[in-house]
Amino acid sequence: MAATNSTSASSPLEKTSLASLDQKLVMAKRYAHEGVKAGARAAVVAGIAAAIPTVASARMLPWARAHLNHAAQALIISTAVAGAAYFIVADKTVLATARNNSFNQA
Predict the structure, then answer these.
(1) What is the structure's pLDDT at 12?
(2) Does the keyword Lyase apply (predicted)?
(3) How buried is residue 74: exposed, middle or buried, by Cβ count under 10 Å (0-12/13-18/19+)?
(4) Of the residues 34, 63, 73, 93, which has the fewest C-beta atoms closer than 10 A?
(5) According to the model, what pLDDT value does residue 6 have?
(6) What average pLDDT does the structure give for the chain?
């Protein structure tokens, strides 16, 4: 039985499938890294874009001036906009990269 396992483990088909799995894993890691970078860029841009009107409204509107302190303004800016932008862009980037690669391989 031991001889059967050693010959099946070194079969060309199994070596090819292991190499293919390794290649797919490396590509998946690369796509995820690209998604993280794109998501982080989008979060920074969205945070800056949301910070300007939030801070301006807190200075100009009487209700906002009375009810929103600096901590509330920072929470609105960081949580809502930057978080959403990160996840949306990262997901779209990973999917687009994987889709482009699948078309290139076909």
Answers:
(1) 59
(2) no
(3) middle
(4) 63
(5) 47
(6) 75
Read out DSSP for 71-94? Answer: HHHHHIIIIIIIHHHHHHHHHHHH
Q: Tell the burial category of 64 from Cβ atoms under 10 Å away from its Cβ (0-12, 13-18, 19+).
A: middle
- Residue 102 DSSP one-character state: H
Cα(56)–Cα(22) distance, integer angstroms: 51
Go through the chain and tell me how many residues it has: 106
If DSSP codes are grouped into helix, strand and coil, which group holds residue 11? Answer: coil
Q: Using one digit for the tens of pLDDT, what is the confidence trace for 20-67? A: 888 888 888 888 888 888 888 888 887 777 777 777 777 787 887 788
Buried b (16+ CB within 10 A) or exposed e, 83-102: eebbeebbeebbeebeeeee
**Amino acid type, 53:** P
